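Ticket closed. Logging final result for THO complex subunit 7 homolog.
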Amino acid sequence: MSDEEVIKRRLQIDGDGTGDDRRLNDLLKTFIKWCNSNDASDNSQPIYDRLLAQLAQCEFDMKKSDFYATVMQQEL
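Final structure:
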């Protein structure tokens, strides 16, 4: 696979180039890590807090993308 094909696929997956795929992958990895954690609740709290922060960032990005799409549609 050539470099050009790899870049093209990454752009198709990433959509607008905002890194959403990376954020979602990080969120999934953190969730799995938190679910598989056998630690006491005190030790899993930082992972849980990180999970909530990542989820909030994903939700914010989704709302921002929807807003921009609406604005662009209205301008057309």
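Helices lie at 3-14, 20-35, 41-75. No further action required.
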